[in-house]
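Lab notebook page, bench 4
Experiment: in silico fold of construct C2
Operator: M.H.
Input chain length: 1055 residues
Purpose: comparison with the prior construct
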Amino acid sequence: MDFKRFMQGPGPRPPAVETQEPDEGEALQTLTQHGMQVDCMGNQDGPAEGNASPRTRQRRGIIPSSTQFVSSSEDPLHSDVLDKVRTVFQLADADGSGRLAPEEFVEAFAGILQTEEGSNEEALLKLFCRVDANSDGTIDWDEFSQFMLLENQGSLFVQELESAVKLMPPPAASVGNVNDHTGTITAIIMARLPNSAERYVSCSKDGTVKIWNPKDLSHVRTITTGSTWVTSAVITPLSHKLAVTTFSREMKVYDLGTFEPCGKIRDIEYAPMSMDVWIPRGRREEVELVAFGDGGGWLRVYELKLNPLADKRSTDRFFGTPVWSFQHHKDWITSVKYLSDISTIVASSLDCTLSMNDAEQRVPLKLLEGHTKGVTCFGYSPEYKLIASGGQDRRIILWNIFSQKPLATLQGHASSVTAIVVNDSTNQILSLGHDKTVKVWDIRNHKCIDTVSDTEYYKAEDTLNAMLFDVKRQQVVTGNQSLKVWSQIVSNNGTAGHGAPVTRALYNSLFCEVVSGDHSGMVSVWSAATGKLRFRFYKTHGGHRLTAMAFDVSQRRVLTGSEAGGVKVWNFSSGACISELATSSQKEVTSIAAVHGSMLKHFMVAGWDRAVTLYEDSAARKIGPGRVMKGHRSDVLDMALMEKYPTLVTACDDGDIWAWNCDSGQVRCVLSLHGRDLPVNETACEAVRFFHGRWRGVLAAAYADGYVRLWQPSTGVLLLEVFTAHKIGETVLCISIDPDNERVATADSAGYVKVWDATTIGLTQASTIVTAPVSCTGSLTERAVWKAHDGQVSSLCWAALPAGRFLLSAAHDKSIKLWDEGGVLVGTFGNTSWSLDDPATWEAKERQPLKEAEVYDMQVAASTRPVPLSQPSKPSSEYEIAPARSASISCTNTASQPAEQDPANARHALLDLELKARPRPSAVAALRTGVSGFKPGYSVLKGKRSSQQVLGSARAPGLVQSPALLPQQASLQAQRPCSSSQSLESGKIIEQEEGQVSSVTSHSHADAEVDVPMPMDSHENNDLAEVAFESDDEYVPTALWIGDAAPARGNRKAA
């Protein structure tokens, strides 16, 4: 984050010159913090001040009017600044609580603080959110001052690390070109012709104006104005004409289509040395204002009008009328500029001063004095609200436009400064010296970051007097008798990007930023709109590798996890560590999630400890663990939360996906790929993501075998399987679904990214209830594929930016890249910068095509990929349950042969969970048999009874399909798989076909417990039974025990 300039209050113009010189000791220093600056102008006179409240004027009045900039990084934030800002803070605290609410903060600092987003209410509210990282709705002085200090330190450090834009020396010009000027060039500007073509325009002491093609600097046209010097040139903004001033005391106007004269202003008292043209505010008639600075020290303003009666071919169609003049200076005026954002005319003079004049009221405002010799040129930064002036004393002085005191002095030129250009896009000032040396300065830290010289010798005058910065082509143009181009290159010192494999790159929609972390523990904050580094902090976990990252619910904090099991909560806008989660495990954290429950907010942490641990999101410095959800049989690799529904899914290294009830901590179901004969290295489920909105109940999972599978956890149905890896043997590591459910992006271990059309999946649902069964009639359609990285992709996410839908990727090749959805590279964070609205600034113009060998690999993969064992969109079993009061159940096994004859088919019978139609809450308990560490034996299920009749159903492959009636009569049965139909009447099981049945009946009592001996000899470890209880009047909880035998009543522990 850049900490920029002090800024005046909301008034449109700077105040008049103070009658009393302020005490220099009271000067405020720059508050360089988080792109934020303090207005140092205490005098708030002017029209806009009348809109401010008395308390606002009182707060602003305590800040003195002068400004002193301290550029030393040793004392970047002076205590005087903090004292004065604290006074403003305290005055805004109306209730004396010591804390400010958002509206109080905005009222207090409106017009005083300027952020990168601006100084309006929305920008200040964003700043409030950055400070209020814990989202309690208020900030106190400790929070605010700590934020300022940390951001200040981090921003100064970032400025040292950012990529530097450097100039390449220009090539030698051709000698004796007939189209060259015969005199030294005095001015260079950019012009846009009526056909929209861009041209460079140069003026010379030989009395000519030449037009050049910027692509190759080829000569286009020569305009002869006379025999005297041409001193300056501008393009008129309303009439789109070329206006030039000459030593013959006149201004001439030329048509840009024909390059013929079409008007002039004659008989100016002194020769105009410089000029500027603008459209006045609030004027309805078509008129332009021209300001001249002449050789007599006068500033003159003329109205430039079109004579409607003049012939279109007349050379006098445009004429000028003087409206105002004032002699500010005692010597030549060397440069004049109109500053549109503050409606002020600024002029520099050889009398060592600069003058500021109100363009609307046409009155002088102030003189800027600081140069010891004549001021030859100046430039203006609308972004930083400062003027940079250069002079014959070889110095460049930076001025706050709202003060008369210099902000800083840049020294380094060995000769007088002849031209200055400010480039806000790169935070740089470019200055040209009389000795043909160009220096590049960083506006923020005032350091010279590059020096380049033109070594060519010029016979007439061995100097350069004019310079233009071409924003579109990002190049500097100078000239002696012909033009030269100084190409810009982006040089990276190796520290702007990441220096270690990137763990995660997350898009923050609240601040439109990208937050990334790498294995070294470094966390970087980037502007998504420009790619620029905004903030950075280091060693988040000491010497341990950073392995997981996630935002909190409010997106104001970031959580980081390490390979040693540690988890910390950070304000990523300042680098402050807010909390640390107390973990007993020292195993690697692989996934972090934040959930907002009905009453509390929690953090969820999972990893190689094979558990999900919940932590309450509190303001405590050390947060202890809460509930721990155990049961995984392998390491947890990823987690995902369903939107607006208390369901968490965890993806495991053995390929299982566990669905949990976030409120109760119970397992809803386990989604497994039974019977898939896969190598050990292809079984893992690497990443999981839920769809959004209506389809939030559909889960997309990426697997190590190269497939993406769509599940519905509420029903356990596998909806779709699609092979997405670029070739056999590669692992699909990342998956991301855009917020509109239109695009799915996948990335694999070879660095390839694919974008799929999700609108062709064909999801249908009978009702809008999230748990209602979903069917799939289509598939994912591939839209784009490209090689995104040289290493495995570690992170992939969609970013819904104002300019459109973009894809963010990060990888172990240490890079973070932004793409459009078609695979066109916008840029690499830390290496380039861009404007999302301007594709011309992007790193690539089109998607990089795949090589022939890569295309062949994909074709081979498509033809030899494994075939799914069953149709994904259809269950492998069908099960119907009658209404709760009808007391009849039918069970059908769709296996072609009885399960006893075909055990493999039985194992693939679909795990199912049937809940009755009444819209009441349901509780689910999972009964797992043959768990590692337990001998096959007895399983015990406990259901707390309800006052109403409860119907439960259980079914699992290779185990049992059994009904249960609770609590008035409870019956559970276990039998070998069969294809029989069964019915339940009055709580009794009627066996219609042969099968082994074990049943126990329990009569109505407060705590109905049923011990069911289960036949275990045919069970596999992955077999799972689920029992669902539903009541029409209350929530029915359940519990589960697993053991060799039923434990004693009252002495049972949940597994």
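Observations: Residues 1-77, 869-1055 have pLDDT under 50 and may be disordered. Residues 5 and 384 are 5 Å apart (CA to CA).
Next step: discuss at group meeting.
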